[in-house]
Amino acid sequence: MTDDSPRRRSGGRAGRQAARLHAHVETQPFLTRTLAPFEVLDEEGLAQIEHNADTILEEVGVEFRGDPAALTLLADAGADVTGERVRFQRGMCRQIVQASAPREFTQYARNPERNVRIGGMNTVFAPNYGSPFVRDLDNGRRYGTIRDFENFVKLTYASPHLHHSGGTICEPVDLPVNKRHFDMVYAHMRWSDKPFMGSVTAPSRAQDTVDMARVLFGADYLEDHPVIISLINANSPLVWDSIMLGAARNYALANQATILTPFILAGAMSPVTAAAVCAQTLAESLAGMTFVQLVRPGAPVVLGSFASSISMQSGAPTFGTPEPALVLYAMAALARRLGVPFRSGGNLCASKVADAQAAYESAATFQPTILAGVNFVLHAAGWLEGGLAIGYEKFILDADQCGMAAVFHKGIDMSENGQALDAIRDNGPGQHFLGTAHTLANFESAFYRSEIADNNSYEQWLEDGSLDAPQRANVIWKRMLAEYEAPPIDEGTDEALRAFIAERKASFADSDV
Length: 513
Description:
Blueprint (H helix, E strand, L loop, with lengths): L5 H16 L9 E2 L10 H18 L1 E3 L3 H9 L3 E3 L2 E3 L4 H9 L3 E4 L8 E4 L2 E4 L7 E4 L3 E4 L2 H13 L21 H12 L4 E2 L5 H15 L10 E7 L4 E2 L1 H12 L3 E9 L8 H22 L5 E4 L1 E5 L6 E2 L3 H17 L3 E2 L12 H17 L3 E2 L5 E2 L4 E3 H18 L6 H4 L1 H7 L9 H6 L15 H6 L5 H15 L7 H16 L7
Parallel strand pairs: 2-12, 7-18, 8-20, 10-11, 11-13, 13-14, 13-15, 14-17
Antiparallel strand pairs: 1-7, 2-4, 3-4, 5-6, 8-9, 15-16, 19-20
């Protein structure tokens, strides 16, 4: 056999692929930043936005629709309630939130090593949320199924770069709408031991999530241990509806965390300008957090912001543009001033596939996410098509970027090893450092090694199959699922969870709403 035989070449190719796929990665339960957050507004600008938000709350107000109990609660606290419109005296919401909402909190996982700290200088990456469609190179775009959902839970669990199992990673449309939350929450509980998000599509589904968590963790454990965090979206502009209020109430009563998030497409759901988006976002989220604190003082809350620009020609959402990045930076600073954790960001794009547009739009969203100091990052991996789809290959590409962010978060190493003066002294002028003791001691951990990027020569790239990044990602996610091993769970607890689900499902008929 000659040295250039196909078998010899394929052996080298396989070896290089194995080295890339199985590169050692340090696993962290969450990230703790050493870098100061980047600021785009000074004290005067931030104070002006806070003043404007109070003006909106005082003069315009926020509607709390379909929930008379919420209106009574707010009126008893001193708000001016007319019909479903609630107006708050200047500073009232801020005072209530600051009086009891924690600055940061721990969300507990069933594996204590996976607990995450939300707030402060910490960053938690969670995957995509809410997409009805999935995409991969083999089958293209299609509706999501419960198998896809379980696959993404397993991929998230297996990824060292994602800290949180997330929530509705994709919609399993093959299951009844009114019962699929059982299967989704169970998937998070069974196929991962990372922390997870709860259902919010109906107050009863939020309660089901709480009840399942009590089975998993113990009935009394939730009283002083937040084990669920859930996304509560405002119906912008300036509306909180009964579904979201009911879900938020049920989680707050159980002392579980909620993310109060206005979803704003600027120009459609708010004025087009960044300052106006910030003021409206702050007003809506303050109103929501005030409600939660009145339901149960001290229940963990997160100030959420999801702001996007739109095409003024078509009305379609756009991503990776500079204006939402400015909003993100400003809202992160406003959350810090308020004293609550902040959620925003992710790897967002409008592209339909994992192409160059997806890469640069995602990077233009993700970089501000990191520099602004976002505490809880939803949509960190998988987002495509403005959120309508989650891509298997995009998931892997995004997770790799999260791994790079983990290194960047650490900042510059100023230890003796980081300064490396002895290495410079010993080596002297004109001598390379490739064989020095310092290089040999640090070569495995000195630089981030991407699982995706191909940095070999053109000839090696040809020999390895001329694969582009999505094709390499396709190999990786399939390998991760093939090698997946479920985390252990107590058999009695698992049996109790499945029995609870079976009993609840049998208690009402299937429905598409």
